[in-house]
């Protein structure tokens, strides 16, 4: 080969090769190193570095670095973006092998994040381009720290995580979410116990500091039941970094609300939202988020023009009638460039005392567009079966996925109220937050209002798809931070949890209950059911009580989100076009697809009257500050 031909071949190959730092060979072993890094207050953090060789002068080659800050004491290092990156795993102070006292992802942890990143940017194994990774607690750490300047950081991939720790996990609706709180405490405490002897041998005082921090966690949780300054310091407080962030979430995730809210805050910086599963598991056959995560890091840390930034900003994997079937591969996909998806409308459905003939609840009411006749209906406000009524906490456990008798509503429904639509004649795609306005009185000084939305199959089983909760001491809504439709209805309330305002026993008040985003296709022959019942047994309960709700025109009603081309009305002449869907996988309930609409058992054949035009309205977004 001539020199000229060799040069031409070289240039041709170079032009076809992706731009960015050179890829490491995957067959090179990963090199790992642990070290202690002192913060500005003298506290030393455990820092774990990993990457592929070969070494250059005893150091890993300079590459983009992906950094995670975790309280769970993990080892090093999962190659989340592939072998072309180096990885830095940081144990948050007071956790794992780091010294100091854990502050529940508060201001001192946030300052540590900025200091570690400034150090990492200048190390010989860094090319000066940093990316962040987070899942759950490590994602929360990033969201909480974005108000600080984060040196050299160019992007992040965050799975699950909270936008506000109080509202999105520990006190949703002002209700103490006890099981996740205890779980977090255990997950942080276990590595501390495991590393206790080594920590004590290195620095006995460090063990005392770590123990003190862990002791404060449950105390602070109980001492701060309102959304006060303590919790505001542990939530999103603004962003000065303008990072393009890939957010990965699931509709049934225990922190589901957080990523949806964070996307709305950060969408103008190039954020993408992939709702495919996180704590709640990834649907079989979906491929999960591995492709998108790797492509995201390549695009923003290695300048590879792979098109990931030109994909739809919001990609959703919706259930098709059942959470467990979603995991088994039965799902529907849709996408758009914003959240809620452009064109989403909210149908206003009134709670009606007229029996539906389909439910085993205390009242068997109807959900309908027409005004309801005046009535009152009561139910016992006692703890409900969490495996059924709390899909978010149930999904993270995962152990009940093969027990439909515990995860559908058959055992929980008889102790509460229910309101059911007629069977749908066409597919209805629902994606978005929902809102329950309920006029309620109670026999206790304080009670919890708990609502569940279910997909009712033709065989009569009700499958929970979304839930919402509200403690009665928090009736206030911040309208400036709520999602409000064109006619002034609150379709996603932003509750005020900073000051308690208990009701007088027996006093009726209007409450706005936020239901976390639902993502589901209701097939023909299926129905929508609203359950109102006692709070999930996974929550810290109030005094048992009898709650009474008022029905009637404008009294208690549900604002329910539907996507373009779908309608909750029956008898519509136009065909409804559902979002693109993969071929359904066989259902765990025995059918490869839901049966066509038919009369089964006590199901009635009468149609739900058409929703008035004023009942369905397009959303306008109120900026989330």
Describe the structure.
It is built from 14 helices and 24 strands. It folds into 2 domains: 283 residues, 3-Layer(aba) Sandwich (Rossmann fold); 252 residues, Jelly Rolls, CATH 2.60.120. Helix 2 crosses helix 3. Helices cover 22% and strands 28% of the residues. The longest helix is centred in the middle third of the chain and has 20 residues. The chain is of the alpha+beta class and 625 residues long.
The CATH class of the largest domain turns out to be Alpha Beta
Amount of beta strand: 25-35%
User: Level of helix content?
Assistant: 10-25%
Beta strands, count: 24
Quick overview:
It contains 14 helices and 24 strands.
Task: Please specify the SSE layout and strand pairing.
Layout: H1 3-16, E1 30-38, E2 44-52, E3 63-70, E4 86-91, H2 107-121, E5 126-135, H3 137-145, E6 153-159, H4 165-170, H5 178-194, H6 196-202, H7 204-223, H8 229-232, E7 245-249, H9 256-266, E8 272-275, H10 290-301, E9 314-319, H11 323-327, E10 331-336, E11 345-352, E12 365-368, E13 375-381, H12 386-389, H13 391-397, H14 404-407, E14 417-420, E15 428-442, E16 448-456, E17 462-471, E18 483-485, E19 490-492, E20 509-522, E21 527-533, E22 545-551, E23 557-562, E24 616-620
Parallel strand pairs: 3-4, 3-5, 5-6, 6-7, 7-8, 8-9, 12-14
Antiparallel strand pairs: 1-2, 2-4, 9-10, 11-12, 11-23, 11-24, 13-22, 14-21, 15-20, 15-22, 15-23, 16-17, 16-21, 18-19, 18-24
Helix pairs in contact: 2-3, 5-7, 6-7
């Amino acid at each position: 080969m001539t020199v000229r031909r060799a040069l031409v071949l070289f240039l041709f190959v170079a032009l076809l090769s992706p731009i960015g730092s050179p890829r490491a060979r995957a067959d090179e072993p990963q090199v790992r190193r642990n070290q202690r890094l002192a913060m500005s207050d003298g506290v030393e953090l455990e820092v774990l570095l990993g990457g592929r060789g070969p070494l250059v002068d005893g150091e890993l080659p300079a590459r983009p670095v992906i950094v995670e800050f975790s309280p769970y004491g993990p080892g090093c290092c999962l190659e989340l973006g592939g072998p072309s990156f180096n990885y830095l795993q940081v144990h948050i102070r007071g956790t794992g092998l780091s010294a100091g006292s854990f502050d529940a992802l508060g201001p001192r942890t946030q300052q540590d994040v900025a200091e570690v990143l400034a150090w990492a940017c200048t190390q010989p194994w860094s090319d000066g381009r940093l990316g962040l990774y987070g899942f759950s607690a490590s994602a929360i750490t990033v969201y909480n720290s974005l108000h600080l300047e984060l040196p050299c950081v160019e992007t992040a991939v965050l799975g699950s995580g909270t936008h506000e720790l109080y509202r999105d996990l520990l006190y949703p609706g002002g209700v103490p979410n006890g099981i996740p709180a205890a779980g977090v405490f255990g997950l942080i405490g276990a590595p501390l116990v495991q590393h206790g002897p080594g920590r004590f041998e290195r620095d006995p005082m460090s063990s005392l500091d770590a123990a003190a921090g862990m002791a404060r966690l449950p105390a602070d949780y109980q001492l701060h039941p309102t959304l006060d300054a303590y919790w505001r310091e542990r939530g999103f407080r603004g962003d000065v970094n303008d990072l393009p962030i890939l957010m990965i979430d699931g509709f049934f995730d225990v922190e589901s609300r957080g990523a949806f809210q964070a996307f709305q805050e950060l969408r103008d910086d190039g954020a993408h939202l992939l709702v495919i599963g996180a704590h709640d598991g990834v649907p079989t056959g979906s491929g999960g988020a591995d492709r998108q995560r790797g492509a995201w890091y390549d695009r923003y840390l290695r300048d590879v023009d792979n098109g990931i930034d030109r994909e739809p900003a919001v990609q959703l994997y919706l259930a098709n009638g059942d959470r467990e079937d979603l995991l088994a591969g039965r799902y529907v996909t849709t996408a758009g460039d914003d959240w809620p998806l452009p064109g989403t409308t909210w149908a206003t459905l009134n709670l009606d005392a007229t029996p539906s003939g389909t439910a085993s609840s205390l009242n068997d009411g109807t959900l309908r567009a027409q005004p309801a006749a005046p009535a009152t209906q009561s139910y016992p406000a006692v703890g409900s079966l969490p495996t059924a009524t709390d899909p978010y906490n149930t999904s993270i456990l995962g152990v009940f996925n093969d027990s439909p008798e515990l995860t559908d509503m058959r055992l929980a429904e008889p102790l509460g109220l229910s309101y059911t639509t007629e069977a749908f004649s066409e597919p209805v795609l629902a994606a978005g937050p929902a809102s329950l306005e309920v006029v309620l009185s109670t026999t206790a000084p304080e009670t919890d209002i708990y609502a569940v939305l279910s997909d009712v199959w033709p065989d009569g089983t009700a499958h929970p798809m979304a839930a919402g909760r509200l403690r009665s001491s928090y009736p206030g809504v911040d309208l400036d931070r709520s999602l409000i439709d064109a006619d002034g209805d609150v379709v996603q309330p932003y509750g005020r949890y900073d000051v308690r305002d208990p009701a007088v026993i027996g006093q009726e008040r209007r409450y706005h209950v936020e239901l976390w985003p639902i993502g589901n296709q209701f097939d023909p022959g299926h129905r929508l059911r609203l359950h109102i019942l006692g709070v999930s047994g996974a929550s810290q309960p109030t005094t048992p009580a009898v709650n009474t709700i008022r029905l009637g025109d404008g009294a208690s009603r549900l604002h329910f989100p539907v996507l373009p081309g779908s309608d909750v009305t029956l008898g519509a002449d136009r065909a409804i076009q559902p979002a693109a869907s993969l071929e359904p996988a066989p259902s765990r309930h025995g059918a490869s697809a839901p049966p066509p609409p038919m009369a089964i058992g006590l199901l009635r054949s009468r149609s739900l009257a058409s929703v008035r035009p004023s009942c369905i309205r397009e959303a306008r977004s109120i900026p989330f500050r």
